[in-house]
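Morning!

As promised:
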Amino acid sequence: MLLEWLARLHDWFRRDRLDAELREELRFHADRLEAEAAAAVGPDSVETQTASRRRLGNVTRIREEARDRWSWPWLEHILQDTHHTLRGLRRAPAFTLTVVLTLGLGIGANAAMFGLIDRLMFRPHPYLRAPSEVNRVYLQYTFQGETILNAGGHEYARFLDLARWTSSFSQHAGFTARTLPVGIGTETRERPVATVSGTFFSFFDAQPVAGRFFGPAEDTTPMGAPVAVLGYDYWQGGFGGSDVVGEMLRIQNLDYQIIGVAPRGFVGVAEGKAPDLFIPITTYAGSQAQNNDRRDYATGYNWGWMSILVRRNPGVSTAEASADLSTAYVRSWNAERELSPGTPPVETARPVAIAGPVRVTAGPSAGLESKTLLWVTGVAVVVLLIACANVINLMLARAVSRRRETAVRQALGVSRGRLLAQTVTESTILALLGGVAGVALAQWGGAALRGLYAEAGALDVVTDWRALGLAAAVTLVAGVATGVGSSLAAGHGDLTGSLKSGIRDGGGRRSGIRTGLLVFQTTLSVVLLIGAGLFVRSLDEVRSLRLGYDPDRILAATPNLRGAVLNPAEVRALGERLIAVSAAFPGVEAAALARGIPFWSENVTYLRVPGVDSVRRLGRFPYQTVTSDYFETMGTRILRGRPLEGTDREEAPRVAVVSEAMAAVLWPGREALGQCMYVGADTMPCTTVVGVAENAFQNSLTETQQDKYYLPMSQAGTGPPDALLIRITTDPETHAEALRAALQEEIPGDGYVTVQPFEDLIDAEQRAWRVGATLFAAFGGLALLVAAVGLYGVIAYSVAQRMHELGIRSALGARAANLVRLVVGQSVRLAGIGTLLGIGLALLGARWIQPLLFRQSATDPVVYGSVAAVLVGVALASSAAPALRATRADPNAALRSD
Amino acid sequence: MTPTPRRDLLPGTLDMLILRTLTLQPMHGYGIARHLRQISEEVIQVEEGSLYPALQRLRQKGWVTAAWGTSPNNQRARYYTITTAGRKHLGQAEAGFAELIDAIHRILKPA
């Protein structure tokens, strides 16, 4: 069948030659028939000729019939229409450019957004075999009335339990993404390392490009084999693609042998950065075992650190898989309770397991950011709708001005179907041009989106077939929709009427449809602008929020000793040296060590306050241990009393600073200063509150409780500090490297230090709102622009149509001001209706957008009012030029023409 | 010489007749027409020109191929050759046709 069509197509291209050949064949046939007849009857008789002619039949009809075999009427029509369209578009460059740009913006916005969310949420990982069978295991439990859902952070013993006690899966693997020091001495760099089970690689259809992958035999508890597989890019970039199999590589504090190289593009199931290295998960876990709570990681439940991947058996649904996992999880929970009786019982913890999407961003625990992104993608679709409405409007204007031409053609017998085909051809060609513009815009926009989403990688729409496919599909839909839409809206004109009258009268119904489309556009633009306004104000709120510290101009330096163990005295000495080095660095105001730093880690310990029954019931009360200059370094204000000072040594009386919120909760209506707390254990001496600090955010910008306290590191020195915090008066970014080099000299052995701006931690927290504000504002602006163009088009067109009427009005004594009011009034009225509808729609949607906003009401009258004002302004501006033209309506011309 | 009564062709049988004819040897259009006339003893009457659109169709379906050659009396003529696919189709068409004719026979001459 396909071959036959190909043959026909081939014949179509050589149809002239086939025609000639057929003619020759028929002549040959006629010749032979004549010769035959001549032999039978005698030459030259009339009978001979007629007999042979009758035998052959009607040659013209035969040729036509044969020609049908190699002609494609509809293809020829398309070519003809294309030719016609291109000629028409060349004659109307302003129309063409407007339509192409409008559609380009719509298509581009969708291609770029689709490319982004596809990468972040939907696209299966490269090489993953049968991705629809593969799930990540999410575990959920209830603690103190709060439901906690984890995509990772599971215990290795739990992983073994779930593998052992389920029957729905053919494959299980554990995995984590770690950032680990790789290399020796000054060559050491922190690199992304995936620690994975020996079964991990068999989830994929990947073959190593050199050497081999590791398997279950090298992934054994308590400690796997020290073998490593290189990521392709690291192999190319770090080793120049040389033969590395068999070489040794130090990762953290262990030497690994390189046994293979993963193929190009293989990232495992990483989200974001592709791993440079893959190592057996038990080798990594075993190498952490000097840490007490990690020693029995394969049998105990103290260390939650990994994620779980499973492949369902054929025919097992995710619901069945989740049920199976949940049963095993309950059993595992009880096993944990036997080991540590402090674990709450199953009845209150209600452990539940879910077989969910591999990508966390698409899973049940996805955060605010994923939701915001999906909303913005919806917004891109709305932009496309607006663009299509606008194009239909512009095409209608064109159709109206070509009404006579269309009527003449209809009168000449061109069918309605052909006319529709022509309109659709025109709109499809416009959409294709728009699609090309859109892909170019998406490519450019992809680079901009990368600023917001570095982990999406280069968003190269031009080479990304999924995004390109979407752009192509959107283009075709837009082309057909605008073509059919404008044909339907143009309706069946009164043929004779159109033939008779001039182009003067626009026709009420058609302008009604155009007005409707315009109102539709305005409505959607208003909704988007309101969304943009809400997100921008939300971001403002986030930015102006007093965090309880000044995060700018703070650097966080983190020493990493690569597993080398220092005794407490050595730790303290190192800390003092680091503080001294940074204090001597030019531009440094203050430096302090801290553990339990906001957005970094949190520590909670036993706390009892005399006179308070159950402290636990009143809050979480995380604490931070700090050295003396902490409050100065962070810029946290002390409201009453004093900060922690250098004199608060180990042997001095125990002291603490509490947050304002904590003081209010524990000692309501009383002075907190001088109060006594028992920290760590009842047997410890009393810790006296010496200061009250302002509230500070600890874990998230949306948290409502800020009940924390601060202890001197010298008195409560449990474990090494998280980081050295350094307040610097100069630009932190530019001095980070020099400071790092200075600190590095103090680090013993193979250790190293990293330095990063503290603000980066908070930036990540603010991203959801930043993304919302940026993208909503960009798309809202686009929508407004498109709507303004539409408004201008409709008003300008209606002025052109009413020139005659305006002329008569002028002749009857209307002043310029009256005419201006007439035109501007029409524009403002249209914009007003759209604005009211848009506001109504936004109020309806407010409920859903509210959770995405930060301390900002989704029905904020300021935002709604400003958007309305902007729309009126746009209506005035876009009707200014047409209004001016209206005042030039010539009464003479109007009177003379009738 | 009494004129032989001429019969119209059953629809759909022309393709089959052409293909069957071409199983003998490659032929030009005129040759095919003459063969049909002679074998059927002038009973089957086709407008000989209608062979040509049919031949184009068969060529596009891949059942015959066409090539220019020289006729015995040194005229340029287009020769058609049946392909393997053509033979296969012919087999199926003939089987179907035989069944049909059988059925018609049974109806016309009930035993």
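Chain B touches chain A at residues 28-30, 33, 47-50, 52-53, 56-57, 59-62, 75-78 (CB under 8 Å).

Hope this helps with the figure draft.
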